[in-house]
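Researcher: I'd like a structural prediction for the single chain below. Treat it as a standalone chain; there are no partners to consider.
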Amino acid sequence: MNKYVERVLKDVKAKNANEPEFLQAVDEVLTTLDPVIKANPQYEANAILERMVEPERVIMFRVPWVDDKGIVRVNRGYRIQMNSAIGPYKGGLRFDPSVNLSVLKFLAFEQVFKNSLTTLPMGGGKGGSDFNPKQSPHTPGKRCSDAEVMRFCQSFMTELYRHIGADTDVPAGDMNVGGREIGYMFGQYKRLANEWTGVLTGKGLSFGGSLIRPEATGYGDVYFAENMLAKRGETFEGKTCVISGAGNVASYAAEKLIQLGAKVVTFSDRSGAIYVPGGMTQEQVQEVMQLKNVKRGELSELKWKGAKFVKGVNSWQLADKVDAAFPCARQNELNGKDADYLLKHGCTLVGEGANMPSTPDAIAAFVKAKIMYSPGKASNAGGVATSGLEMSQNSERLSWTREEVDAKLKGIMKAIHDNAWEAAAKYGKKGNYVVGANIAGFTKVADAMVAQGVC
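Model: Treating it as a single chain, here is the predicted structure.
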C-alpha cells in the first residue's frame, strides 16, 4: 500500500475508532487509490486525503415533538456536510433507529464520490434522525400516525432550516423519508424562511418535484447494469434476477427489469423474503408499491399463489438459479456466504442499488470471480442525479417531461459507467468498476480542492 494512504488510514482509524461503518467506507475507497496517488504527487502535498476524510461540518441537534397522547418525545437529529468542493452539499435524510454518527458519516463520504460521478455540480452530505416512523411511541406494533410524523418533521426542520439552502445544502429523502416526509419538511422550511426555493428534492409534482424522481435510483441501477452487459454483448432478456428490499429502489428496479425481459423472483424486507419461482408480474410489483407506500405494510401480508414467504431471511439464498443480483435494501446486507451462494448458482452480475450493501468479503469474492460488479456509489447514483435535475428545473422555474428526464437519466448513467470503465483501464484495472468508480469520483473532487487552496 502507498505509504501516504497507509498513514492516512491509520490516522482515521485512531480518530474514529467507534465508527465501524465510516471506517469501512473510508478503507474501501482509499485502498483503491494507490495508482492515482502515485501519479499525482500534488494530492499528498495538499493533504487531500486528510481533508477528504474529515467532514467540513457536523451538525447534531435535539428534536422535541409531541405524540398523539400529548407526551413529549425527544430524538436526535444530524446533518453531515462532508465536502462542497464541486457544489452545494447534496444528500438524503434518513429516519431510522439505526441512524448514528458513524452511519451518516459513511453515507456522506460515499455521497461525495457518487455526486462527483454524476458529472453534476453537487457536493456531498447526509443527515437524518433516530426517529422511527414505523413504530408508534405509545402503541406497540403500530406505526406513527401522519400527525405524529408531521409534528416530528416540523420540529426537525425548525433546527435544520438554518443550516441549508438552495445554494448551500439541498437535502432529499432516504430510508423512511418519502414524499410525505419531504412535503411536511418543505412546508415548514417555507414557513420559517419565508421563501419558496428548491431547498429539498423529492418534492411532490404539484410543488416543484420532478417526474421520474421516485423511479430514478431503481431505474438508474438497471441502466448501469445494462451498460455492463453491453460490454459483453448481452441483454437482460431471459435472465433471472434476485432483488433485496421492497421500497422504491427495489420496486422500480424490478419494474424496469421486467420491461427489459428479465424474470424477477425475490423481494425482501425486515419481516423476511418472498420468492416467486416463476417470476413476478408488473401487477405484483405494483401491489408491492401499494403495500409499502400507501398501506405501509410488510411482505408477510402478501398472499400470492405459487409464492413462498420465508420469515427472517434475505433474498440471496432462495433461488436455485441466479443470473443477476440487485441489493437494494441497506448497508452490509450481502455477506461472504451470500456471495458464495450467488456465484455457485450462476450469478455473473451484481448491481448495487443500496449504499454499501455488500460486506468487504463479499466484494472481494465478486472481484476475484471477475463478474460484473458495480459499487453503489456508481450504480445507485441515478437518484441523486435526478435530484440534481430537479434542482435545475426549480432554478429555471421549468418542468421537464417524463421522457426528457428519463433520457437525461439514461445519459448520466452511461456517462458514469463509461467514466468508471475508462478510469479502471487507465490505471491497469480494466473491468474493475470498484477501482474505476473510486478513482473517477475522487479525481474530480481532489482537483477542485487543489485549485481552491487550503480551505
